[in-house]
Write a structure and sequence with these properties.
It holds the Pfam family bact-PGI_C. It comes from Desulfotomaculum copahuensis. Keywords: Isomerase. The chain is α/β, with parallel strands linked by helices and 336 residues long. It is built from 13 helices and nine strands. It folds into two domains: 155 residues, Rossmann fold, CATH 3.40.50.10490; 156 residues, Rossmann fold (3-Layer(aba) Sandwich), CATH 3.40.50. α2 runs antiparallel to α7, α3 runs antiparallel to α9 and α7 runs parallel beside α12. It starts with a helix and ends with a helix. The structure holds 5-phosphoarabinonic acid. 5-phosphoarabinonic acid binds next to α3.
């Protein structure tokens, strides 16, 4: 997992190249963009929803189900994304998208998805295998941006991708295992999460998907629970719920993911929320986005969480790599 994490800056460049290498053209005007996938493969869709949502004149949605919404049709550009290519929900959604005449692009390492797409004459972006889907966010996200750029739906992003890779290279030095605790934000976060329940708060439209990503990374890498929510919504419900039961609340540790691009009124909410929370939880910390472009800023919040979840696994004496529970569940479903 450490190797996969440290390879992310280079993965992003390779992923971009793979997307740009695809020959694409739209069969009909594109009225919606959808990513269908699950788990580590769906998070790339969420990144697309946040990043492209601000830039595209059409909606971007993520489908995490066997079935597709009714609006999907010939004017839907649909990325069927599955790292393994064998996730049954994604295969089912792919089949339905074919029946509905959607403009499909498969994004996978292989498996049944690649076989079906090739047989159907559907374009496939084949990304390298051998790492966990959750360590492949570059492969599962950047090719979708490249396709949208090639279709003329997004402005050229080559510079942003180059900045992303450079920024991650610099961050890798700060987050890697050799960097001592005093200078390593990811190790500091892991120590604060250890033997506690992590709660991660992001902001709508910027870091919301990153908060969800941190939660998933703690679950899958550290094999521990974690919860997430977003500003401003959490100010309208979750914030009220930090009064009882006091002892259990003191087992929570909250990290707020911040970006100067967050809505100015949301930025005012952070300090007020912390003040209202008082000493209800074990502690609170903040991670601030860095970098210039939106891509670098998004990943500048993702990367510390990725490393922190792996350090947390090590504190628990757990191998972050295998997710036997998911494998078992898929195997048992496959028997039926
Ligand atoms: O991280 C994981 O291993 C899971 O969340 C998988 O991504 C999820 O089960 C879907 O599998 P795939 O990404 O191969 O479609």
């Amino acid at each position: 997992m450490f190797d996969a994490l440290s390879g992310l800056p280079e993965q992003c460049i390779r992923a971009w190249e793979l997307g740009m290498a695809l020959t694409v053209s739209a069969r009909a005007e594109i009225r919606q963009v959808m990513v269908t996938g699950l788990g580590g493969s769906a998070i790339g869709g969420d990144l697309l929803r946040i990043f492209a949502g601000k830039r595209l004149p059409v909606p971007v949605t993520v489908n995490r189900d066997y079935v597709l919404p009714k609006f999907v049709g010939p004017q839907t550009l649909l990325f069927a994304t599955s790292y393994s290519g064998n996730t049954e929900e994604t295969l089912s959604a792919y089949r339905e998208a074919r029946e509905k005449g959607a403009q499909i692009i498969a994004l996978t390492t292989g498996g049944k998805l690649k076989a079906m797409a090739e047989k159907d004459g559907v374009p496939v972006i084949t990304v390298p295998g051998g790492i966990s889907p959750r360590a492949a966010t570059g492969y599962l996200f950047l090719p979708t941006l490249a396709v949208l750029q090639k279709l003329g739906l997004l402005e050229p992003l080559d510079e942003q991708v180059a900045e992303l890779s450079r920024h991650l290279q610099a961050m890798r030095e700060q987050l890697k295992p050799e960097t001592p605790l005093a200078e390593n934000r990811a190790k500091q976060v892991a120590i604060n999460f250890f033997q506690r329940i992590p709660v991660i708060w992001g902001a709508s439209g910027t870091s919301e998907v990153v908060a969800q990503r941190w939660k998933g990374q703690v679950n899958e890498n550290a094999k521990a629970p974690a919860y997430w929510n977003v500003f401003p919504e959490l100010n309208h419900n979750e914030l009220v719920g930090f009064q009882k039961p006091e002892e259990l609340l003191r087992q929570l540790y909250i990290v707020i993911l911040r970006d100067t691009q967050d809505h100015p009124r949301v930025q005012k909410r952070y300090a007020i929320t912390r003040e209202i929370m008082g000493g209800a939880v074990a502690g609170m910390d903040e991670i601030e986005a860095t970098g210039n472009g939106d891509l670098a800023r998004l990943y500048s919040l993702i990367y510390p969480g990725d490393y922190a979840s792996v350090y947390l696994a090590l504190l628990y004496g757990i191998d972050p790599g295998p997710v036997k529970v998911i494998d078992q569940l898929k195997a048992r479903l496959a028997e039926q």
